[in-house]
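subagent[fold] <- orchestrator: predict structure for attached chain, return tokens only, no commentary.
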Amino acid sequence: MIGVQSGMSASGIQDVTWKKSRRSNPSGNCVEIAELADGAIAVRDSRQQAGPALIYSRTEIGVLISRARAGGLDRPVG
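subagent[fold] -> orchestrator:
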């Protein structure tokens, strides 16, 4: 993935508000996102809040959302 910074602990990211989709369900299979001071987006597993976080640029998140909306990330049938 272009621009991803790995190995950062989500617990080390301070002074942010983590958000989870309103469509999340109680099973906990969700990710949470937070906007960082420099405009980048942090992503973490909602079940491992102190675990690793991936950091993406706003452009990368925009591409991800566009591809998802267009069906480009759907699983093949069969």
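orchestrator: received. Logging for downstream: The beta strands are 5-9, 19-20, 31-35, 41-45, 52-56. The radius of gyration is 13 Å.
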